[in-house]
Design a protein that fits this description.
single chain, 252 residues, Rossmann fold, six-stranded mixed beta sheet, four-stranded antiparallel beta sheet, ATP binding, ATP-binding, ATP hydrolysis activity
Length: 252
């Protein structure tokens, strides 16, 4: 589904990604772990198309709706979203004055239009929103509030998982979804990710520092990112090894 080959990227002329290669197939969940400054969030932002992140080499392809290979780096961020990519942020932003429900309906219908699908009616959208909010144990009243305004850290992350469910991406890149979550919110978000994305036609790239989220979202593969490259890959046991021994010992 996702093929990253020798990806190189810089921020403010400083090289961050230095030849990263990774293959993610449909039906797989991959965890990216690594020390601070290794390039984990940069990888997510580059794939999402965030301005200020300059790709200086390599390629990234994503399987399109009809199985064709799409050059992801040639697309604008909204085109990447329409192609099926979802980027979850470590720190979801607040958007005062913008209704959560209206924001999500506009986003969902914009993507449906780009894919040649009919827009959701108001009733259809509310039914979908209730279903996805239920998975994350969010009250519908919260979706009527301005986007993330007044939300706790855990509520912001759950709201973002509801967004993911409504937008129904093929590939979700989740940047430290576990950051700022208490034990209950961590479990709920983990269950939500599994319910929405653990399917044969979808894939997840889960960026995290810690093993704890992987207790709920069990990855097929774990990769250690250090110095802008993938330096080690393995199964779920690699995350446990990192937790007990640290990055330096494992990635040496």
């Amino acid at each position: 589904m996702l093929q990253i080959t020798d990806l190189q990227a810089s921020v403010a002329d400083k090289p961050i990604l230095k030849g990263l290669s990774l293959t993610v197939n449909a039906g797989e969940i991959h965890a990216i772990m690594g020390p601070n400054g290794a390039g984990k969030s940069t990888l997510g932002y580059v794939l999402g198309g965030r301005p200020g992140y300059e790709v200086t080499g390599g390629s990234v392809t994503l399987d399109g709706q009809n199985g064709e290979k799409i050059d992801l780096l040639e697309l604008d961020p909204h085109e990447r979203a329409a192609a099926g990519l979802f980027l979850g942020f470590q720190y979801p932003v607040e958007i005062p004055g913008v209704s959560n429900v209206q924001f999500l309906r506009e986003a969902a219908n914009a993507q449906r239009k780009a894919r040649g699908q009919d827009p959701l009616s108001g009733g259809e959208f509310l039914k979908l929103a209730r279903e996805k909010a239920g998975l994350l144990r969010m009250d519908m009243d919260m979706l009527k509030r301005p986007v993330n305004v007044g939300f706790s850290g855990g509520e912001k992350k759950r709201n973002e998982m509801v967004q993911m469910g409504i937008l129904d991406p093929k590939l979700a890149i989740l940047d430290e979804t576990d950051s700022g979550l208490d034990i209950d919110a961590l479990r709920i978000c983990g269950e939500g990710i599994n319910a929405i994305m653990r399917r044969p036609d979808k894939a997840v790239l889960l960026i995290t520092h810690y093993q704890r989220l992987l207790d709920y979202v069990k990855p097929d593969f774990v990769h250690v990112l250090a110095g802008g490259r993938i330096v080690k890959s393995g199964g779920p046991e690699l995350a446990l090894q990192l937790e007990s021994e640290g990055y330096e010992a494992v990635a040496a």
